[in-house]
Amino acid sequence: ELVRGSVAYYAFLNYKEQAGKERATLNEVFGVDAFNDDTYRRFVGIMAAQAEYLAVFSKFAEPADISVLDGKMSSPEALRAEQLKLTAISARSGFGVEATEWFDVMTRKIDGMKEVEDHVAARIMAVADGLVSGANRNLALSVGALAVLVAVTAAVGAVLFRSITRPIGAAVSALRNIAQGDGDLTERLDEKAAGEIGELSRY
Question: What are the phi and psi torsion angles at 36 (to 5°)?
Fold first, then answer.
């Protein structure tokens, strides 16, 4: 979801950038009331790029993002900008359109597109924040599980250690009494101990 949102956001940024180029190019065209070869080629290239970026955005964006864009493109200023653009496309000169009107309506249209950009960016940030929260939660669970595992391992290790050292300590104490004490040979070792300690005690 994060990758799809990022692709959609990148495509929309380029789509909005092309709208800025469209504003500048047609402002120049309406200012002189005619296309020349350079401005016409530039304008056609801008329209093609806009169509490509819009197609990518529509493919990867969430339905809610597309709905917000549709709403902004249905605003009076966006519709008026589209009408003025169609006027420019229909003829190479003699448009009868003031450059200032075009610039104003197109600027308001781009302002609406900036709101769409902010909406898409906010959704991506929300997704990223959710991923970070999930990662932190998983990390906390992993650390907690590791702490429990360490505690259990330490407890088991302590029990095993005591089960080995206690019989050895008892045997050493009894043998010390026999060797260094009063030489009481009736001293008995714990023959019931398990493993090698029990075998040592029996011998």
Answer: -115, 180
**Helix, strand or coil for residue 132?**
helix
Count of C-beta atoms within a 10 Å radius of residue 79: 13
Contact, 56 vs 11, CB < 8 A? yes
Mutual orientation of helices 99-180 and 2-32 as an angle, nearest 10°?
A: 160
Q: What percent of the chain has pLDDT over 90?
A: 55
Q: How far is CA 73 from the centre of its chain?
A: 29
Q: Which residues partner with 34 through β-bridges? A: 93
Better-predicted residue by pLDDT, 177 or 113? 113
Rounded to the nearest angstrom, the gap between the alpha carbon of residue 78 and the centroid of all alpha carbons in its chain is 33
Measured between alpha carbons, how far is 30 from 17 in angstroms, rounded to an integer?
20
